[in-house]
Write a structure and sequence with these properties.
67% of the residues lie in helices and 0% in strands. The chain is an all-alpha fold. Helix 5 runs antiparallel to helix 10 and helix 9 crosses helix 12 (235-250). The N and C termini lie far apart (47 Å). Pfam families: OpgC_C. The chain crosses the membrane at residues 38-55, 75-92, 112-135, 155-179, 191-211, 261-282, 314-331, 365-382, 388-413. This is OpgC domain-containing protein. InterPro entries: UCP028704_OpgC.
């Protein structure tokens, strides 16, 4: 299941130093070139996220998760860290640790209520379908919500204390915990950047003790009181990727060089790891060469923990960093290769697509909450109309249009056009 981590809704520009900000003229400020990379890539991931969450969607056979260890989840967690460095890193620098942490706490508060609201809206929608629809299947049970409706009082307490976290609703709780670790990491910065790195790595190792030979079961959080199931997205594992993105945007890590050697190494790893990280690619290899497939199948069992999604295994980390490097190189410095140039029809079409995709990326929280509910509704419609190729295409494209509209609506409301202009 591909999911996302919604980030602070930030816009990224190529910024000069603080000293230059103080002396820049209005004309110079207007002349700054917008860097579209962060918003573009998380916008792309949002379309993938919607596709992946539509039940029985034919198009999920072609999302990135089918071709390697990492998927759209990594894109959003990494971009979340980068966006958080922009949104919160400046608060720590300008206002100090206490007020910077207070701002993080306020964001945690917002995301917590987004999680609660999303759960109740989708639960209501599934209950309405089961109560008034008279369908053969139970839509509430399709999300494993039977315990909530059958024994509501303890599950209601669990929902608010995050001890009851159904699988479909697990990404926002993970993000809350990762955000909650930010004050700790920022406190470590006062000691040294090595202390920051050591803290993040130690927390990741606590979730992945197999790396140092301490067994398969690491630090995790209970997802439901009636079983031993843990949170699908273990925040103690996924924080490593979040703070990697944070470190790059904060300047703790230098930007990687554009090197032919690195490009080749990253591309080779992405291509040749595909049959080891994707059953889809593995089946292609099996159809081509059974002996090679048998050899690869043996490796699958050996790498089970290293590619684990819940705890964010090390192979997923390496795979995503390879993809991210290739995407960074392709986009060019400041995202210059993403920005359309010229007046040809192709350039004009790309300019429009870039605007739509980046707008979706900018309004991540609003789009995410809407898309999670929309995906279940589209799945219901497909149940009634069938999943023919044409019907599925119309359903997906309609979903894309709707999340674009939500992104523009959210941006419009945030601009507060009703307020008097100064």
């Amino acid at each position: 299941m591909a999911t996302i981590v919604p980030q602070p809704d930030t816009q990224v520009t190529t910024l000069p130093s603080a000293a230059a900000n103080q002396t820049a003229t209005p004309a110079q400020l207007q002349a700054r070139i917008r860097d579209p990379r962060l918003d573009f890539y998380r916008g792309i991931a949002m379309f993938i996220i919607l596709t992946a969450h539509i039940p029985g969607n034919r198009w999920t056979g072609w999302i990135p998760a089918r071709f390697g260890f990492s998927d759209a989840t990594e894109i959003f967690v990494f971009c979340s860290g980068m966006a958080s460095a922009i949104a919160f890193g400046g608060s720590y620098s300008r206002k100090g640790w206490a007020l910077g942490s207070a701002r993080v706490g306020f964001r945690v508060w917002q995301v917590f209520w987004a999680h609660i609201g999303l759960f109740f809206f989708i639960a209501m929608m599934m209950a309405a379908l089961d109560t008034y629809g008279g369908f053969e299947k139970s839509y509430a049970n399709s999300l494993n919500l039977g315990h909530f409706f059958d024994d509501t009082m303890p599950q209601l307490v669990g929902l608010f204390t995050l001890t009851y976290v159904p699988n479909y609703f697990d990404i926002l709780p993970m993000y809350l915990v990762v955000l909650g670790l930010m004050p700790l990491l920022m406190a470590m910065e006062k000691i040294s950047l090595w202390a920051v790195a050591a803290t993040s790595v130690v927390i990741w190792l606590a979730a992945n003790p197999y790396v140092i030979g301490l067994g398969p079961d690491g630090l995790a959080l209970a997802a439901e009181p009636w079983s031993d199931r843990k949170w699908f997205f273990n925040p103690f594992g996924w924080q490593l990727l979040f703070f990697t993105g944070f470190a790059f945007m904060k300047g703790w890590l230098p930007k990687p060089p554009v090197s032919k050697t690195l490009i080749i190494v990253a591309a080779v790893f992405v291509v040749f790891s595909a049959p080891f990280g994707s059953w889809k690619v593995f089946l292609w290899v099996q159809a081509w060469n059974q002996d090679l497939a048998d050899a690869i199948r043996q490796v699958w069992s050996l790498t089970k923990e290293w590619r684990n999604k819940s705890d964010f295994g090390l192979l997923r980390y390496a795979h995503f960093l390879s993809l991210a490097y290739l995407g960074w190189v392709i986009a060019g410095e400041g995202g210059k290769r993403l920005i359309a140039s010229g007046h040809s029809l192709g350039a004009r079409i790309w300019a429009v697509l870039l605007k739509l995709i980046t707008k979706v990326g900018q309004q991540s929280l609003a789009v995410f909450v809407f898309s999670m509910a929309l995906a279940r509704l589209i799945g219901f419609v497909l149940d009634q109309t069938g999943r023919a190729i044409t019907t599925t295409a119309i359903a997906n494209l309609t979903g894309y249009v709707l999340i674009i509209l939500v992104a523009f609506a959210a941006a419009w409301f945030k601009s507060q056009p009703w307020r008097a202009k100064r």
